Amino acid sequence: MSDSSAMMRRAVLEVCDAFDGVDRRGTGRVTDQVRRSLDDTIRLAVVGRVKAGKSTLVNALVGRVVAPTSAVECTRITTHYAFGGPERGEVVLRDGRRVPFDLVGGGLPESLPVPIEHIAHAVVHLQSEVLRDMTLIDTPGLATTTTGHEDATRRTVLGHEGVRAADALVYVFRDMPLRDDMEFLREWGSVTDTPGQAAARSIGVLSHADTFGGTPWGADDPIALARDRAAQFAQQHGAHIGSVVAIAGNMAQAARAGLVREFDAGLLAGLARVPELDLELRSGDDFAELAPGIPNIEAKRLVDLIGEYGLRHGRGPAQQGARALSDWLVRASGVDELRRALAVRYVGRYAFVKTRRALERLERLAWANGAPPPLRGIIAEAHLRPELHPLQELDALERLAALEPTHPLVAMLDRQLAARNDAEKLAMPPSSPPTQLRDRALEWSVEARRAAVVEPYPERQNAYQVLDRSFTNLALRLGR
Ligand SMILES: Nc1nc2c(ncn2[C@@H]2O[C@H](COP(=O)(O)OP(=O)(O)OP(=O)(O)O)[C@@H](O)[C@H]2O)c(=O)[nH]1
Ligand SMILES: [Mg+2]
Questions:
Q1: Does 52 fall in a domain?
Q2: What are the mean pLDDT values of the chain's consecutive 10-residue runs (480 residues total)?
Q3: What is the distance in A from the centroid of ligand 2 to the CA of 139?
Q4: Are residues 103 and 206 in the same domain?
Q5: Per the domain annotation, does 61 fall within a domain?
Q6: What is the pTM of this model?
Q7: Which atom in ligand 1 lies closest to the alpha carbon of residue 56?
Q8: Does residue 319 sit in the same domain as residue 200?
Q9: Which atom of ligand 1 is nearest to the CA of 138?
């Protein structure tokens, strides 16, 4: 946790304590919920049409094959993958009861202990580091013939029936988003507060990048084509999707889940000198040899593991062994770009979103009918606390980004929220002495104040004013 999120957390806990000090009997239920909510991790729902590649992507992100990708019944229920130990599964029934089940080989079993129609969703607790920062929700495909699964997805994501809606969407599509994809995204937009937030809270994944355009054996590189296409989508659908990343999910899954062994790399390296045409047009005879000692059936197994693209282009890196092959697969698959985008856009930002939500709950309580008046005083004071100033920064950022996403002030606000320390906030080297940091903070606060006075556009003016306060707070803190 960064310093500033720890400070925000403490400030909210203090507000809860102050509320309870006034009237614990009236406020306890809400303050206890708020305290617990500070431990939430961001919930990312992976959504898309049937067989779009959602579960494969979940596995690639978790770094383990946990989500089933075959036709077993578990692909038809929504599953939350959350951090926790001991590793275990649990189905949550529609009537709220919970039934535990054992994982099989670290993943979901073939069948569940309860008939599927009684299940609201499953929760799987895993010791995967990635899940410390985010809970991943694998959903059944949208637009299936049986609308039951689709309802389950809508419930999870859009938050009907009191199930908490996902915090953000990873929207997976193949080739191109179809009409119902766009409809779903619009619906998602309508449950978020503002149109700007809808885009800020969804990221597109163009999956099957390795077979984009049909075959990986032609002259064009499908992954390169898919990346171009992804950039186009992002431009066309910017209002609904923040950005779009092209991904070869199967390659990412194989490498990140450690499925590529030395033996596989050896085989692949052994195919280095086979002409591409022979590789592409492998005969149906499983035992015919492609290269000395390598029958077709082994090539088939490699294709199941890393796809035709991996078979064609992985032969070079495979000469250096399984590690080099896995590194190449990760790089080529595009999964790191997605991980970076998730980290920057969601995970880092979530501490602020969570704090804002907590304060909103407390504020509603303070203004509820019959609430003791001192609660309102406590809330008003909280808004002035420097530890909670990042919420103003977030607010200013969202308002300005909705109108002018590329304005330099957006980047400046973003830096304040993303910075891990004071030096980063001020774009100074990490070793800078506090006096230098303080001088820079003062200088920038003066600049922001001057700019605010002459700035005619309200959202920009607001951003300058917020930044003035950011740098003034910083200078005061450093001056002590
Ligand atoms: N070549 C290639 N195959 C992929 C990719 N992503 C997934 N697949 C394959 O596509 C099939 C479907 O993948 P899943 O991950 O199960 O798709 P899903 O969206 O979870 O499917 P449902 O849950 O049934 O809706 C599997 O056979 C995967 O191996 C990819 O990026 N490239
Ligand atoms: Mg699936």
A1: yes
A2: 82 97 94 93 89 94 88 76 93 91 85 86 92 91 58 63 68 79 72 56 92 92 96 80 91 97 97 93 88 93 97 97 98 96 82 90 94 96 93 91 86 89 93 95 97 96 97 90
A3: 7
A4: yes
A5: yes
A6: 0.83
A7: 15
A8: no
A9: 20
Fill in the amino acid letter for 266. G
Note whether 246 and 282 are same-domain residues: no
Shared domain for 390 and 436, answered yes or no, is: yes
Residue 342, domain member (yes or no):
no
In this structure, the answer to whether residues 240 and 260 fall within a common structural domain is no
Task: Tell me the CA–centroid distance for residue 332 and ligand 1, in Å.
Answer: 17
* Residue at 97 is within a domain: yes
355 CB near ligand 1 (under 6 Å): no
Q: Which residue segment(s) compose the domain that 325 sits in?
A: 253-333
Do 10 and 89 belong together in one domain? Answer: no
Q: Do 424 and 456 lie in a common domain?
A: yes
Count of the separate structural domains present in the chain = 4
Ligand nearest to the CA of 48: 1
Give me ligand 1 centre to Cα 150, in Å: 18
Closest ligand to C-alpha of residue 144 is 1
User: Which atom of ligand 1 lies at the shortest distance from residue 50's CA?
Assistant: 25
Q: Which atom of ligand 1 is nearest to the CA of 307?
A: 1
Instruction: State whether 370 and 402 are in the same domain.
Output: no
